[in-house]
């Protein structure tokens, strides 16, 4: 069931109808004393069997990391490289850092809001009178789609995990907005940890407006 939902994410993002959008960091970890992430070249990876989504997300990720390259340019098809050789292949290509993101869960959160009754109800007569005079607000159910994303940052020099986080986003309206929201929170965590060594690039429309 989880595999089906993950593979159906593009459609789910487009059809998400919720008006409330929020990302929260629900778990985070960083290597003590790792210092600033001064990678010379970073590979951005989005783990999914949907190649179209992989390219879309990796293109978003490279906008948030300096000197970053989407992994699809190095490994067009992820299944062509096994775990025993992928690290050396990335090192040979000149990468010393990696940011890896994947969706771990998509679920619906159902919340019931009970109805409300206004007006006194003392005995039959009182209830009779108030039933005609005061409105009754029936209860309703609200469904929110929660997308859980796992993001890891590795130092490829010594093959070490230096940062990890799990986030939850409610009702993302598009893949791009989901990634930008998640990365905004990750940047805040990196800054708090003293690991942020760069400023995210501005959106393309803002960059164009400023003449950059």
SSE layout and pairings?
Elements: H1 2-7, H2 9-15, E1 22-30, E2 42-46, H3 51-61, E3 68-70, H4 86-92, E4 97-113, E5 116-117, H5 123-133, E6 136-137, E7 140-155, E8 160-170, H6 175-193, H7 204-209
Parallel strand pairs: 2-3, 2-4
Antiparallel strand pairs: 1-8, 4-7, 5-6, 7-8
Helix pairs in contact: 3-6
Structure description:
Residues 1-20 and 199-212 have low confidence and may be disordered. The protein has seven helices and eight strands; from the N terminus they run ααββαβαββαβββαα. Helix 3 (51-61) crosses helix 6 (175-193). With 212 residues, the chain is of the alpha/beta class. The protein has one domain (2-110, 146-200): Rossmann fold, CATH 3.40.50.
Question: How are the strands of the biggest sheet laid out side by side?
Answer: 1-8-7-4-2-3
Proportion of strand residues: 25-35%
User: Rg, please?
Assistant: 23 Å
Q: What fold name goes in the CATH topology slot?
A: Rossmann fold
Mean pLDDT: 78
Shape: elongated
How would a textbook summarize the main sheet?
A: 6 strands, mixed
Annotated CATH architecture? 3-Layer(aba) Sandwich
Structural class: alpha/beta
How far apart are the termini?
45 Å
- CATH C-level class is Alpha Beta
The ordered string of helix (H) and strand (E) elements is HHEEHEHEEHEEEHH
Instruction: Provide the helix percentage.
Output: 25-40%
Domain count: the total is 1
Q: Count the E strands.
A: 8
Task: Please mark out the parts with pLDDT under 50 across 5 or more consecutive residues, or reply none.
Answer: 1-20, 199-212
List the total number of helices: 7
């Amino acid at each position: 069931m989880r595999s089906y939902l993950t593979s159906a994410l593009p459609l789910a993002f487009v059809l998400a109808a919720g008006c409330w959008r929020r990302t929260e960091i629900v778990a985070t970890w960083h290597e003590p004393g790792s210092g600033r992430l001064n990678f010379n070249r970073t590979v951005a990876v989005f783990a999914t069997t949907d190649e179209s989504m992989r390219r879309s997300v990796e293109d978003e990720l490279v906008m948030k990391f300096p000197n970053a390259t989407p992994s699809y340019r190095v490994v067009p098809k992820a299944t062509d490289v096994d775990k025993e050789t992928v690290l050396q292949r990335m090192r040979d290509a000149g990468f010393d850092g990696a940011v890896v993101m994947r969706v771990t869960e998509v679920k619906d959160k159902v919340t019931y809001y009970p109805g409300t009754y206004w007006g006194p109800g003392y005995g039959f007569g009182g209830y009779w009178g108030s039933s005609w005079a005061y409105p009754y607000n029936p209860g309703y159910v609200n469904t929110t789609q929660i997308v859980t994303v796992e993001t890891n940052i590795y130092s490829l020099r010594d093959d070490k995990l230096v940062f990890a986080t799990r986030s939850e986003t409610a009702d993302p309206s598009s893949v791009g907005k989901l990634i930008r929201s998640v990365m905004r929170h990750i940047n805040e965590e990196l800054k708090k940890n003293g690991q942020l060594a760069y400023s995210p690039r501005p959106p393309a429309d803002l960059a164009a407006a400023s003449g950059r």
